[in-house]
Design a protein that fits this description.
Strand order of the largest sheet: 3-4-2-5-6-7-8-10
Mean pLDDT: 81
Low-confidence stretches: 23-48
Order of helices and strands: HHHEEHEEEHEEEHEHE
CATH topology: Rossmann fold
Helix content: 25-40%
Number of strands: 10
Largest sheet: 8 strands, mixed
Shape: globular
Distance between the termini: 54 Å
């Protein structure tokens, strides 16, 4: 049997990566992932290969909204059954387009997803999930302190390698987007993480 073409191998790799979190990717987004991945080859392979930025952001955007069903927020989080579920992007404007495409027409139960970009994260930002990356107006620690104790799932990007304190942190592990979960930080923000999601994490930091 002849070897599979590179395009076929790339398609299989992307499908396997997204399947780790049960992601069912829209055909348009899958086409984007495939197109980006097909362009990421380099004549000289790096010792620690990194995904192309566009592919990396598309995968992170898909992961981000797929985290929501695995998290329990306090009962009073939503004032009405139709209140939007707010996913905020604090800092990196270039991430918005990927996230907007990933959540288009989707909802968590009766709560439609809404994407909001913030220059600065404040205690009254009213986010259910906040993605923190490349902040210009405050440090990652200042952003995390702004929502400390509030029912917000904080997700720190892999572009912040030395930042600690978020509930979820994206990391690049052998060229793949993975995540680490801090259950102690989740408890401080009065939210709980499903064991199913914990089992998919690269590492779990237990509550002390």
């Amino acid at each position: 049997m002849p070897p599979r073409s590179r395009r076929t191998r790339v398609r299989a790799r992307i499908a396997g990566l997204l399947a780790r979190l049960g992601v069912r990717t829209p055909s348009c987004l899958f086409a984007l992932l495939l197109a980006c991945a097909s362009c990421e080859a380099s004549p000289q392979p790096a010792p620690h290969p990194q995904p192309a930025v566009s592919l990396e952001y598309a995968v992170k955007a898909t992961y981000l909204y797929k985290l929501a069903p695995f998290v329990n927020w306090p009962p009073a989080t939503f004032e009405s059954p139709q209140q939007p579920f707010r996913i905020c992007v604090a800092g990196d404007a270039s991430f918005d387009a990927y996230l907007q495409q990933a959540v288009a027409g989707r909802s968590l139960g009766t709560h439609p997803f809404e994407v909001h970009r913030l220059e600065t994260l404040t205690p009254d930002s009213q986010c259910q999930i906040v993605f923190i990356s490349r902040l210009a107006s405050q440090t990652v620690q200042e952003a995390l302190e702004a929502v400390d104790g509030k029912p917000v799932l904080t997700v720190v990007d892999s572009t912040e390698p030395h930042a600690d304190g978020g509930i979820v942190k994206f990391v690049i592990d052998r060229g793949r987007v993975r995540f680490v979960i801090d259950t102690g930080a989740a408890a401080r923000n009065h939210i709980t993480i499903s064991s199913k999601l914990l089992n998919l994490a690269l590492a779990v930091r237990e509550a002390s």
